[in-house]
Amino acid sequence: MSIHLQSVPLPMDRIDNAMNINDLSSNSSGNDFKIRTQMKDMDVMEDILENKLLGFKNKRQLVNFQNQGEMLFYKLESEYIEILFMGNFQKDQTINFINHLNYEYLSQTNNINAYREIVNDYTETSIEEVKEKVAQPKPKFSISTNMKNMSIIDSIRTESYLGYNSMDELDRFLSKGEIALKKTENGTYDIVFIGNFDKAEAKSYVENLSDEYALKVQELTYMKVIEKLKEKNYSLESEVIDNNDSIVLTVNMK
């Protein structure tokens, strides 16, 4: 069975109404659900889908899983690929499939340290309760930031605990709903929280994200400056971090 990805109009209503996979009970059959992966490149992902078993014992088992419904691969505001599952996909099989897909992708792109396993956290929610939860309007609020680079934002969200002591603590916070990025007219991003998030906890999350963003931007700027100095054969005599945490460089231009 060959796999070919093609561009199709996104069914935004189904995407918006789909449950996050962590909100599903063990019996997810017949429900649309979605997940954001750790993958960015569609071509690399397509090659993996074509050539790897992704946790299944043989090709037939993988094909049987794929034939349970339709998988829609898409990107919205994030650079990361998201997947909408429509049909009779089971939660445990799907999580196993996504974990292997993420792991294989990060291995092939030399970024395995960023791998995060999705924990199969069963709930006692019935199918009827899931459908009722989907139909209910979700609380929504946003927090403004000064951040402008989505790639840096996403890399921090992927790699950092953002003030939490463990991945489990962070996952419990994230499981309360969806977090989206909304670009404003001045080029900065608002962080939009959709679900049952505590506003004080969300504010702390954004503050930690903004702090790490500023440090990352400073680090990248420093590296670019050093590279430019090397290109011009300038020598760096000293570097000092001042009271504002700024890096002051002294350069010999002779």
Mean pLDDT: 81
Estimate what percentage of residues fall within beta strands: 15-25%
Query: Overall 3D geometry?
Result: globular
What percentage of residues falls in helices of 4 or more residues?
Answer: 40-55%
Residue windows where pLDDT falls under 50 for at least 5 positions = 1-8, 123-127
Number of helices: 8
Number of strands: 9
Summarize the main sheet. Answer: 4 strands, mixed
How many distinct domains? 2
Q: What structural category arises from helix and sheet content?
A: alpha+beta
Distance between the termini: 64 Å
The SSE order reads HEEHHEEHHEHHEEHEE
Strand order of the largest sheet: 1-2-4-3
User: Quaternary arrangement of the chains shown?
Assistant: single chain
Radius of gyration: 21 Å
Question: Could you write a compact summary of the structure shown?
Answer:
This protein has 254 residues and is an alpha+beta fold. The protein is 40% helix and 20% strand.
Task: Give an overview of the whole structure.
The protein is α+β, with helices and mostly antiparallel strands and about 250 residues long. The chain folds into 2 domains: about 10-135, no CATH class; about 140-230. The protein has helices spanning about 10-15, 40-50, 60-65, 90-110, 125-135, 150-160, 165-175, 200-230, and strands at about 20, 35, 70-75, 80-85, 140-145, 175-185, 190-195, 235-240, 245-250. The longest helix is centred in the C-terminal third of the chain and has 33 residues, at about 200-230. The relative contact order is 0.12. The model is unreliable at about 1-10 and about 125 (pLDDT under 50).
